[in-house]
């Protein structure tokens, strides 16, 4: 299995579209917290410990997280978004930031959020022995894809993130946040399932001599 990765891995990013508003908000917030956590700043360490308790739980159910997930940065730019669209963005931000906090736990020497890093499918594929299919891991990935609600999806992603943390496999959490937001839009699940499946199948380990990880763009649509 994959056990480590470089501090600054060169994951291909040229085929990805820029992050949308939700992804940009999450990436900026996590970057600040991650930098502080790796410097062992007490405020960042304390914030991460509180935030990770929200992983897998519905947004808004833990008042202790108010002001810690970075959602307030969203409201300066949402304009005339509907209540539903705003709530969907809040859910995506909550899930992505709390999952990152769980993922980063105990990793002081390496970033678990990497801009331009693996998206979900290729990250999961990295957990498997090169050239082999690990059926229990594959089933967990399939279960996440089969989630019928955002709450269930958050719980099943939490299971995958625990495995990624154990093997020190990073994610691009800005991209994940955009995908979680689009997952909640009409026809969005189909686009995101396709993206996750494509990156899972397209991953190639370095030893093959092929590109390590194409990680193509999450969707063919602009993310708000």
Report on this model:
With 224 residues, the chain is an all-alpha fold. It has one domain: Peroxidase, domain 1 (Orthogonal Bundle). The protein contains 8 helices and no strands. The chain is globular and about 45 Å long. Residues 1-14 and 216-224 have low confidence and may be disordered.
The CATH C-level class name: Mainly Alpha
The CATH architecture is: Orthogonal Bundle
Q: What is the CA–CA distance across the termini?
A: 36 Å
Mean pLDDT across all amino acids:
87
Q: What would the CATH topology be? A: Peroxidase, domain 1
| Strand runs, count | 0
Q: Give the topology string: H per helix, E per strand.
A: HHHHHHHH
What proportion of the residues form beta strands (DSSP E)?
Answer: under 5%
Give the proportion of residues in helices: 40-55%
């Amino acid at each position: 299995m994959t056990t480590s990765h470089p501090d600054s891995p060169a994951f291909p990013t040229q085929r990805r579209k820029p992050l949308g508003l939700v992804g940009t908000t999450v990436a900026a917030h996590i970057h600040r917290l991650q930098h502080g956590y790796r410097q062992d700043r007490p405020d960042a360490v304390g914030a991460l410990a509180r935030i990770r308790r929200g992983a897998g739980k519905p947004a808004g159910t833990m008042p202790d997280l108010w002001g810690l997930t970075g959602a307030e940065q969203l409201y300066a730019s949402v304009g005339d978004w509907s209540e539903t669209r705003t709530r969907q963005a809040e859910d995506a931000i909550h899930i992505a930031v709390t999952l990152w906090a769980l993922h980063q736990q105990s990793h002081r020497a390496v970033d678990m959020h990497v801009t331009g890093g693996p998206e979900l499918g290729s990250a999961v594929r990295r957990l498997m022995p090169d050239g082999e299919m690990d059926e229990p891991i594959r089933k967990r990935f399939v279960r996440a894809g089969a989630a019928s609600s955002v709450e269930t999806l958050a719980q099943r992603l939490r299971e995958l993130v625990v495995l990624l943390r154990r093997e020190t496999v990073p994610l691009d959490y800005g991209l994940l946040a955009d995908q979680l937001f689009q997952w909640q839009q009409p026809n969005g699940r189909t686009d995101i399932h396709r993206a996750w499946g494509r990156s899972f199948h397209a991953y190639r380990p370095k030893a093959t001599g092929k590109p390590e990880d194409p990680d193509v763009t999450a969707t063919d649509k602009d993310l708000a």
